[in-house]
Amino acid sequence: MKHKHNRIYLASKSPRRRELLRQIGVDFELMLLRSDPGRTVDVSEEVWPDENVHDYVARVAKEKGAFAFNLLLQRRQQLRPVLTADTTVTIDGEILGKPIDNREAVAMLERLSGRTHQVLTSVAVHAERVSEQITQVSNVRFAELTPAQIRAYCATSEPYDKAGGYGIQGPAALFIEHIEGSHSGIMGLPLFETANLLRKAGLSI
């Protein structure tokens, strides 16, 4: 079924994902899920025991999408495709979340310095007759960072709302020596894969 307009629900707080969807001409309505610490969350982002990073990122994106689409049904809102995504940074098999303070941000960048890590973004699209998902993986190599570079970066607000403590679209682009994969995927929404999922859900991209 083709949708008359390229309009979806985006269940994400990420401003980067909004920018990327606009880049490919997809109109959206925000549908924010609760995720604040200390409150009841709609979808848990805790890592299960023995859960590997691929399973983790796919599960979180899928659960967010299923929850959001069920909300539409419960509220009897207009049904459109719901897009959700989750981005995770991993090194040595360990997931690096969003740093909670300066000390944690510094430790993350020290660990990434001079090494290659992986950025995984899983994208899920839920619609009336379609439920599709894909996980995109990119390899990112950081140059050797000096302690002064790390301190200066972590003194800004940049690291604290981003998995792994950095964003490729900001000043941390100066740290990145090489990438293999999807630049938009590292930002939080791989556009090639996302467009294919939305086409399967009936949009014209």
What does this structure look like?
- The chain is of the alpha/beta class.
- It has one domain: Maf protein.
- It is 32% helix and 24% strand.
- The protein has helices at 15-23, 53-75, 102-112, 147-154, 183-187, 191-200; strands at residues 7-10, 27-30, 82-91, 94-96, 116-126, 131-142, 176-180.
- Strands 1, 2, 3, 4, 5, 6 and 7 form a seven-stranded mixed sheet that branches.
- A hairpin with a 2-residue loop joins strand 3 (82-91) and strand 4 (94-96).
- Helix 3 packs across helix 4 (147-154).
- The model has no long low-confidence stretch (mean pLDDT 92).
- Kindly identify the CATH topology: Maf protein
Structural class: alpha/beta
Which term fits the overall shape? elongated
- How many E strands? 7
Mean pLDDT: 92
Report strand %.
Answer: 15-25%
List keywords for this structure.
205 residues; alpha/beta; Maf protein; 6 helices; 32% helix
In short:
It contains six helices and seven strands. The protein has helices at residues 15-23, 53-75, 102-112, 147-154, 183-187, 191-200, and strands at 7-10, 27-30, 82-91, 94-96, 116-126, 131-142, 176-180.
